Automatic annotation (TrEMBL):
This is Aspartyl-phosphate phosphatase Spo0E family protein. InterPro entries: HLH_DNA-bd_sf, Spo0E-like, Spo0E-like_sf. It comes from Neobacillus notoginsengisoli. One of its GO terms (molecular function) is protein dimerization activity. SUPFAM superfamilies: BAS1536-like. GO terms for biological process: regulation of sporulation. Pfam families: SpoOE-like.
Amino acid sequence: MLIEPDELISKIEYLRNELINTGLQKGLTSTEAITISQELDQYIVECQRCFPEVRHCVNTL
């Protein structure tokens, strides 16, 4: 995945908000919430692997 740090962080923020909203509406164990959570995990790992200098930013979003 080739993506700029700002884009990656924006995607992570978006997915976190989606996960929160989905969790509140459908529950955190819903299929949709789990799918969003797994996608979010992939982006967080990618961010931490490719941009270790922004690791602290991802942890505090």
